[in-house]
Every structure is written in structure tokens, then in C-alpha cells.
Amino acid sequence: MHSSALSLKTLVLFVILPLLPMGCASWDPNKPAETEKAVKEAVAEFKKHDPSLKAFFEKAYAYAVYPSVGKGAMGVGGAYGSGAVYRDGKMIGYTSLSQVTIGFQLGGQAYREIIFFKNEKAFKTFKSGSLEFSAQATAVAATAGAAANADYANDVAVFTLVRGGLMYEAAIGGQTFSFEPLEK
Length: 184
Description:
- The chain is of the alpha+beta class and 184 residues long.
- Helices cover 34% and strands 46% of the residues.
- Strands 1, 2, 3, 4 and 5 form a five-stranded mixed beta sheet that branches.
- The longest helix has 22 residues, at 2-23.
């Protein structure tokens, strides 16, 4: 029994901890070029994996891009990522997401996430900090053609793209968001 507990701790140290910095980068508002570069790389990767996402980029009222979100868990889990918000193809602010989950889960993972807002009402909910949802229930994995069959749920569409790691989970939790406009 003692050796299995030790191997579990070792797994956590070697799997979860190295992945967290990948998603925990915080954007420096004084360096918007670095943020935009990371976002452009993330968007290009999403479009490469699923070219049908183009329609969401063209028709969405606004969207938020999280180039790297780090997620780790051992019973209780958490995730964090930061990124930028775009409207009419221009960066209008910074955003962060936080997630706490509880349930059967173990591992660590890094992923990218994009949230599309269908209309101004959904975007205002996001900007106010009132948007909250269970990512496991609403996110679509960005794979070839996935966006072609995806649709908005409550005027929001979420796509994720795994960057690395391994995560086993049957957990309950939700993501919450913050928004900071470039111009105040």
C-alpha cells in the first residue's frame, strides 16, 4: 500500500507539475505583441486541425483565445490560462480562465481553448464576469471537420485542442472568466 502511494506521488510530480507552467503564463499588458503572437500561433493551429472553424471566426460577434491552459489534478483539480479577446479581428482586451474540479481525476494536461460569442448579449455576459460553464460538457475537440457540425449553446461555442499530457477524469467543475479591456 505504501509503495503505491509513493508511485502516485511520483506520477503527480513527473506528469502534472511540468505541464502547469505551459498553461500558467500570464500576459503582460505592456507587451501586447507577445500576446498577439501566441494567439496567432494558437489560431493557426486550430485552423490547421479543423479548417471548418473559419466560419466561426468570420461570423462570431467576438472571440477569446487562450493559447495555453495548464490543467492538473489528483482528486481535486485546477486549470488556469490567459489570453486575448478579439472583436472585428482586432484585439480589444485580455482575459483569463480558472477552473476547479472535484471527482475521479489524475494527471496533467496542457491545451488551447477558443470561445466564440454568437452575439453582443453573450459577449456582454462574458465581459461582466458572469459567464460560467462546465467545459467538459460544452467544449468540442478541434479535429478535422468538428466545427462543421458544431453549434452554439446558449450563444457560446467552445473549442479545445490538446497540446500535451495525459488526464484521466470523471469530474464536476466549471470554468470562470475575467476580462480586462485594452481601453478603459
